[in-house]
Amino acid sequence: MPKQNRRQFASRAGLSLGSLAMAPLLHQIQVHADGREEALPRRFVFVIKSSGLTAEAIRPDNIDGDQSRTIDESIADHKLPATLESLTPFRDQLLILDGLSGSNFTGNHSSYYGALSCCHAPDKPVAPTIDCLLGGLNPAPFPIYGFSPNGHSIGNNFGPTVQETAVFPKISAYGANKPMAYQASAEKAWRELFGSVADLAAGGKREFLLQDNLLDFLSDDVKRVSQQVSSSEREKLHQYLQAFESVRARNTKLSDMADSLRLHSPKMTSQYSSKVFTERVSVFFDLTAAALIAGLTNVISIRADWLSTKYAAFGFGSTSVHDIGHNKLTGNGLRSADARGVIRKFHVDEIGQLAAKLQAVPEGNGTMLDHTLIIYMSDGADAHHSSRRNWPFIIVGGKRTRLRTDGRYVRYPGYRRNGHRTIGNFYNTLLHCCGNQTRPHFGQLDAQLRDLDLAGPLDELLRRAA
125 and 10, same structural domain? Predict the structure, then answer.
């Protein structure tokens, strides 16, 4: 559609420039009307499993096994593994990464914050994680949102089976000593994302007004007290004030988006209170799609499972993910590799459904999936007890991002070989996709790889600028 015709379309639709800027979906129409495809949002969904993502299990058939060189091969003529079959409709925007390492930040069963920050941080974060950084580069009312279907609190790895509260799974962080909370309750997540403005008739508007009055009171109080304290204490108060103003700004955006939220809010069903783990995971994928489509956030992280998870719905009985990692048979007699396949297929099927929902939404000259990267990975690299010398990823979507996800399998040379690269290089690549090209390295460098050039992004994965 020619640029002038798109402008005429917006005019005929009765959408003024002011109203177009109020809600993200309408803003996207404005961007399209202006012919500015590059101004559309870049979105990222991180799906993080535990106990390793086995490299051999995600490798297409008949791929050369040579680890002495980089392999960059189209998957068009290769059959995908059975557990990845639901991604077949998206094979032209699928990227399977193999051979990257992250062995300088270790843990027993998990790299915890290190998996997304590339820093050794088993207990407390020491640096921002890639998902939180991307959230800051792609602003929305919620810069980033996290889902953890059951979750466990800090220091309680084998805690309660079900939690209905915010949890800290030790995965994401805004910075040093600033862990990011994930929501473990589907009902609370719905209310946080949609509830306060999706039903204004039920008092949502009044709640917003009351909160604004409270923020006015708190802001005035902080400003008054700051004149009576030392400069160091004044700086702390300034941070509090900024937090208050951030809440106010988000509330204003959400209020302006009321119509959009009512349109895209998922219906609350009994599944939202289900104690069945797989049902809880599915609800969070539904909420992910709705939140992205409504424009509430552009970055979401999903903690897909953890060591104490029991997939009873698959007949595993009381056998946990941790047990499976130690080769214990499941309740229905599956061996470890087969049980891992069942779990992996479940996760990938959910990713496939999410991709289909985003692909069904037109955006710019393509779809929302074209501007979204769904990244599936493990917090423990390729095995239950991993050396982290191979950290596989599956990436879906992104046809109109700078990342080349055009149906490829890419494996880098083995650890310490010439040409070997790290997950820090991959995260640097994601930052480059958002225009952030300021970091020579992401996270801490591996001393065992000091003879290799590990600076910058993975250039072979980036599309050349037009």
Answer: no
